[in-house]
Amino acid sequence: VSKTLQHIEMVFQQFNLVRRLSALENVLIGRLGTMGVLRSTLRWYRKSDLELAMSLLERVGMADHAWQRADTLSGGQQQRVGIARALAQQPRLILADEPISALDPKSSEQVMELLLSIHTSERIAVICNLHHLDTVREYADRVVALKKGRLVFDGPPSGLGEELSRSLYYDERLEG
Predict the structure, then answer these.
(1) Nearest-angstrom CA–CA distance, 100 and 78
(2) Distance (Å, rounded) from C-alpha 77 to C-alpha 71?
(3) Is the pLDDT score of 161 beyond 90?
């Protein structure tokens, strides 16, 4: 794996947590690449990794749920654990694939605020794939819009006018 790819981490639409493991153990999975095979197989984590994982759970507002199984957490809680797992790998770039598509409005706002905060305070670049233009307008500082694999817009959210918005989602095949 190239050094560049080691600094890119994903936040997934479907969370991709190990359901039977605790929130803390799911964050520690993000540290497996820094451990040897024996340590990772036995789940024998270094004290520094445990401390990092707990601090990241604190960072995403999930420290009180550290020992709770992932499958008992709400969708918003699971996504925040997924973000903590991504941060455990100490990335320079986070790719977020529809990170709020399966969440209720309040959880969606919490996750987007968290991603914005990570970008602002930790100086980690976040590229987020979103389909809800209101969310794009609220959180993005740059928008790259594609349609059928072609670039149709690259600029500030203020440039996403009504005509462009309609053209992004209008499907010519539905024309009467």
Answers:
(1) 11
(2) 10
(3) no
Q: How many CB atoms lie under 10 A from the CB of residue 129?
A: 13
Task: With beta carbons less than 8 A apart as the criterion, state whether 69 and 20 touch.
Answer: yes
Inter-helix orientation angle 75-88/47-59, to 10°? 140
Residues 55-88 as b/e (b if ≥16 CB within 10 A, e otherwise) read: ebbebbebeebbeebbeebebbbbbbbbbbbbbb
Residue 175 has pLDDT above 50, yes or no: no
Q: Which of 108, 154, 161, 110 is nearest to 133 (CA)?
A: 161
Residue 10 phi, psi (nearest 5): -110, 145
Average pLDDT, the chain: 91
Pinpoint the alpha helices (H) of the chain: 23-28, 37-42, 47-59, 75-88, 105-122, 133-139, 162-169
Place of tokens 């996403």: 160
Q: Give pTM, 2 decimals.
A: 0.89
